[in-house]
Structure formats: structure tokens, C-alpha cells
Amino acid sequence: MSGYQNLSLLDIAIAAALIVVNGALSVALKLDLERKLAWAAVRSVVQLLAIGYVLGWVFQFSRWYVVLPLMALMTLIAGLSASNRGRRTYLGQRVDSVVSIWVSSWLVAAVGLFVVIRIHPWYEPQYAIPILGMILGNTLTGVSLGIERMTEELTAGRGAVEMSLALGATRWEAAQGPARQAVRAGMIPTLNQMTVVGLVSLPGMMTGQVLAGQSPLQAVRYQIVIMFFIAASSALGTVGAVLLTYRRLFSPEHRFMASKLVEREKPKRR
Amino acid sequence: MSTHADTPLIRATALTRYDPVRHAVLLHPTAFSLSGGQRAVVTGPSGSGKSVFLRALALLDPVDDGAIQWRGKTIARTGIPAYRRRVAYIAQRPAMLDGSVEDNLRYPFSLKVYRDVHFDRERVIKLTRRAGREADFLDKRASELSGGEAQIAALIRVLQVDPDVLLLDEPTASLDPASALEIEALVGAWFDDRPGERASIWVSHDPAQAQRVGERQLVMTAGTLS
Fold this sequence. Notes:
The structure holds 2 protein chains of 2 kinds. Chain A is mainly alpha-helical. Chain A folds into 2 domains: 8-60, no CATH class; 63-263, no CATH class. Chain A has helices at residues 9-17, 19-28, 34-60, 64-82, 93-116, 125-156, 158-167, 171-196, 204-211, 216-249; strands at 88-89, 250-251, 255-256, 262-263. In chain A, strands 1-4 form a two-stranded antiparallel ribbon. In chain A, strands 2-3 form a two-stranded antiparallel ribbon. In chain A, a hairpin with a 3-residue loop joins β2 (250-251) and β3. The radius of gyration of chain A is 22 Å and the shape is globular. By secondary structure, chain B is an alpha/beta fold. Chain B is built from 7 helices and 10 strands. Chain B has helices at 50-57, 80-86, 101-106, 121-130, 147-159, 177-193, 207-212; strands at residues 10-18, 25-34, 39-43, 65-70, 73-74, 87-90, 165-169, 199-203, 216-221, 224-225. Chain B has a 6-stranded mixed β-sheet, with helices on both faces. Chain B is globular. Chain B starts with 9 loop residues before the first strand and ends with a strand. The chains are: A mainly alpha, B alpha/beta. The A-B interface holds A 159-160, 162-170, 173, 251-257, 259 and B 20-21, 58-62, 77, 80-85, 88-91, 93-97, 107-108, 110-114, 154, 157-158.
């Protein structure tokens, strides 16, 4: 590739030293963030180096039985971290979030790899892994926001939900208000992203392709395609997660099982 | 709908409920039946299971044992919304949706189970007058109602669709005496509209009210109804 500047470890060290800026600010303003900063810096370096080595290895062995398990692992991690959010949870939330992320992101990735980009073989890791990764990252946000909002709406609006049921509403009639709010909440980050892309933010993938020597016009085409993959998958994932939550919390006897919603021991917010 | 004088409206047998977490008994096996023309009152200390009993009859909470029959028939899953249309549960704290009082009164008609009936403004204004309010009550914002007004609106929301049974879960517990009397008058008028056909269960902790709102006095003590 013409004009591509490889980075040495020294270059990385110089960039990493910029963390000192954050440290100095933390000390000067008494933010008490020094330890967190150091930990975050170490983590990001270690995680990225590790994934670099893993990907390097996977790219060498571009076999389906290497790529597929890696994709599955990525999906599982995305599903589990999506379920870690929110003040309230319920039995089975983890399963619901993994299932909704898995189904939606793999469906959209399959359309992307087989129909849109049409690469051969389909598991070519250079395409399959980053594309799935980008889809997962955004679907994760949608799913976790959707579940979080659904449980919050049902907690705050319990009186209204029970009033509807007591009047004779079916479980879906009673739940649809909160469910709509939850799906909206899950889809809005993607919509916001789509409206400012190119104006305020230059997405990492596009920037990366340009840095690697790709023409901006081609890079933009890829970005457009990815944007729609992301939108489709996070919408599907959010709707799926909200519906699964609904099924857990409303019984076929048209009851709202509020006692299944429990507050987390230690609230984890990311 | 024809009423058979000998078949009770609601018949509960061995209705039992445990606390799902601590496995304590919330409601000991309870047999109970309610016929048209009966006004039952349940009193008892708070936490004794009055609400548990009423919510079980409304099928709002799962029971661990026992069965409920409506007019001599068991209630299928798909029949639960229709049952709740006939047997209306009124909570202590009225839940109002966003919008005006009228929006709230129109809400039931958006539900599948009320497809055969329509919102009748004249009828609702008559009910509003019965509660000592004028027609402009319908234009008020639901969020700006006092506790008493909200409970009146919630009651009209239910009464306008002619339930056969009212399950009143301390509907006046947090209201001033004047509002409480208005609620009692509304329920009384509903009961008298169809002599011998309608029935109510009123949970109350006020002995004077208990005397006013029913003839059949029951007491709940630690999950046992007597």
C-alpha cells in the first residue's frame, strides 16, 4: 500500500505518554481519577494488543472453524455486557439479551456478507470479523438501553399497567406503552448517529480505510453500507430484547409479575 | 346476560397464596362466594391479606392453589380480560394516564374487550354530576386532580362500562371524609341501579364506613377470612 506509515512501539509509547495530560489534570483539579486513568490506559493497551495478536493469528488461518468460534465468542461477550446495565434486572435477562443480540446481529451480518459485500469465502476474517464487530457494538447499546428502559417504565408505571389489566386489557395492551418507549429509547442512539455522521463524526472504519490508502469515495460507500447494517441490527435487537422482556414479565394469564423485577445488588453503569 | 338466582356470581374454593420469597402463608385456603345483591365488607389489620384476597379474586396475582368460578364456570385464560370487565378491581391509589379526564374515561374503549361498546359522553356527565362535579370536570388535566378527584375519575372510568362486581381495595383510605362519602354515593347508586344483580366487596379499615358500605361483614386476620 502506497504511503502507509507503519507505527513502531516507540511511536506508541509517545502517544501513550499523552495520558500524562489526563493525569496532570486529574491531580490539578483534584478529580481523584489517577488510579482509574492508569487502569483504563493499561486495559486499553493490553486488550488491543491481545486482539491484535488474536486477529493476526485468525487472519493467517482463515478457516471457518477458527473464524466462527471467534465470532460466537464476540457475540456472547456483547450479549453478556449488554445485560449488565440498568438498575433492575429479572431472572433470564442475560439469556434474553444474548439471544436478541445473537439473532439480530448474525442475521444482518449474513445479509451483509452473502448478499451485499459478497465475499468468498464468506468467513474471510478480514471482512467477517470487523463487520460483525461493528454491528455488535451498536446492537449492544440498543439492546441494553431497550431492556433498561422497559424495566424502568414498568416499575414507574406499574400502577397504570395494573389499572389497564384490571379494566380487562390483554397483557400486550397493558404493556405496549412501556414497550414502545423502550424500543424508541433503544433506537435513538443509532438514529442520532446516522444524522450527524460525516458532519460531526467521521466513523472509525471510514477513517481507517482512508488512512490505509483507500479512496475516500470507496471508504464512504463502505461506511454507508455499514451504517444500514448497524441500523437494521440494532432495531431488530432492540425489538427482540423488549419483546423477550415482555414475555418474562407478563404471564399468559394477563398478569404483570412485578415481583420478578429485582433491583441489582450493586448498580453497574457503563 | 341472565342471572340465575341460585348460582353465585363469584365462587372461590381453597384459594391459597404463599409469599414467593419467604414462603409464609399470605392467604390460608379460603372458600368464598358472592351472589347478586350482596355487599360484602372486609376489615382487618393492615398486612392481614385483605388486598391479597381481593387481587386474587381479580386474577391480578397468581394463586398457589384453589379455583375461582364466574357464574358457575371456570375461567379460561382467554376469558380473563372478559372476566375483569365484569369484575372490576379498584385500587387504593388511582392510576391516571396522561391527558385529560375525558382521555382517561375514553381509554377502556381502546381495549379489545370493549369493542362492542362506545364512549357515551351523556352517560359519563350523568355519573360526574352524581359525584357532585360539573361537566367541565372532563376537561381537567388528569395530572392536576386531587386525590379525591382522581379516585372519582377512576371510579367513573369503571362504572361507565357497567361491571357486575366491584372489588374496592380501600379506595378512600387516603381521601378526606367528604371525598370518601362521594365515592360511597357513586358506588351505592351503581348498586341500586340493578337491584339484586350487582355485588361488591369493599375492603376498609374504617369501622364507620364498614357499617355504611355493606351488610355482610367479614374479617381478615393473618390470612384467614372469617
